Q: What sequence folds into this?
């Protein structure tokens, strides 16, 4: 049965897919977290030349026919920039790009870098959605993750954000930390829910190649969590948050069910194959069928901008088959799944016919469900996203090779 909420959400997704998002990468941190592989540096003396260069890159990139309805300021730690610099970037963006009314403007913050007055100033600068990198309310977890803030800092930051006037607050949490029990993870979730945020991002700890944490894992400084316990923690978050009024709308993300605006409008663009422009070092852009990315160095980025050049490091034009594969993978990440009619219209194929064998097998195993022209993962299936996407892609490749 299609409800009024379903119809409203479909309309929201249609709007999201037609408009573009602007991502600004702020590549600075007071201290690098040992698990993070996003590009950032700790030399804060480069902030001013970087801001000048980012402003110039916006001016170089503004000649587009796209219409935007989101700005996402991520990092790194964007909150190492002061409100004046954030205002300058937002003001420049508005002057260079065509924005629709009711723009969602998100700022990522680290609890160890903000205070009450600063959060009020960010609000005055135009930020209307805040994403707080809490990661955990447990001291030992924060120490293991190498965070610069304490449990008290995290609690203060959330309360300050609310008092500063933010009515769209997201909390980031990390689970799967070695030694973490389901009970301990549940306590973290209970503590987080007390603040009544509009949004949660719950990320499983991963060991990315080249990071200090991955090197320690290889040297056996700690024992990584087993897949079985990680699955239990995933289900713990799902059970707890959905019974507390949060909708599991993407594998790692939950939003208050009664507030459609609580979902991250910007992040939904990545999952719905919408266009987005990324500016700043290492930032990626996608305007179908082309993806491009900037150089991964602040100094190189500033030098190229100062010489009047675009800081683009590389690009690729996706083939039709690559686009189909990405639609499948990104669609399966979301609660709505793959909209089969939309898929069929875009690629001039019949989704059910192409993937019939795999869909039948995975449906019987309880990993996939198809209804109302949608193909989506069950909660159990979400645990095997990569494997299931690979099965569908393999099926597609076989069909192509047999033609």
A:
């Amino acid at each position: 049965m299609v409800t009024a909420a379903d119809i409203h959400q479909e309309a929201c997704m249609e709007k999201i897919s037609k408009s573009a998002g602007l991502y600004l990468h702020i590549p600075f941190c007071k201290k690098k977290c040992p698990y993070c592989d996003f590009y950032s540096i700790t030399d804060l003396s480069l902030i001013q030349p970087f801001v000048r260069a980012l402003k110039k890159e916006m001016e170089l990139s503004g000649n587009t026919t796209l219409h935007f309805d989101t700005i996402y300021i991520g990092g790194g730690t964007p909150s190492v920039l002061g409100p004046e610099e954030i205002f300058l970037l937002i003001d420049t963006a508005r002057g260079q790009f065509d924005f629709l009314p009711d723009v969602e403007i998100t700022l990522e913050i680290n609890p160890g870098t903000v205070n009450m007055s600063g959060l009020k100033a960010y609000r005055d600068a135009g930020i209307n959605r805040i994403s707080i990198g809490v990661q955990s309310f447990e001291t030992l977890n924060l120490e293991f993750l190498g965070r610069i803030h304490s449990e008290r800092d995290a609690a203060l930051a959330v309360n300050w954000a609310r008092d500063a006037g933010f009515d769209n607050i997201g909390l980031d949490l990390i689970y799967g930390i070695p030694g973490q029990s389901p009970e301990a993870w549940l306590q973290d979730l209970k503590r987080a829910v007390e603040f009544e945020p509009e949004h949660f991002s719950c990320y499983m700890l991963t060991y990315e190649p080249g990071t200090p944490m991955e090197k320690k894992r290889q040297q056996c400084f700690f024992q990584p969590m087993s897949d079985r316990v990680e699955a239990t923690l995933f289900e713990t978050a799902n059970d707890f948050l959905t019974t507390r009024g949060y909708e599991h709308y993407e594998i790692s993300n939950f939003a208050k069910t009664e507030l459609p605006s609580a979902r991250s409008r910007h992040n939904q663009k990545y999952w719905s194959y919408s266009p987005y422009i990324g500016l700043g070092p290492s930032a990626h852009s996608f305007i179908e069928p082309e993806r491009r990315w900037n150089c991964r160095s602040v100094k190189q980025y500033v030098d190229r901008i100062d010489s009047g050049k675009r800081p683009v490091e590389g690009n690729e034009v996706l083939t039709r088959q690559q686009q189909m594969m990405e639609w499948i993978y990104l669609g399966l990440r979301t609660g709505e799944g793959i909209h089969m009619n939309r898929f069929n219209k875009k690629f001039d194929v019949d989704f059910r016919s192409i993937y019939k064998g795999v869909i039948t097998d995975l449906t019987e195993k309880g990993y996939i469900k198809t209804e109302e022209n949608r193909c989506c993962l069950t909660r159990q299936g979400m645990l095997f996203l990569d494997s299931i996407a690979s099965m569908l892609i393999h099926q597609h490749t076989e069909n192509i090779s047999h033609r």
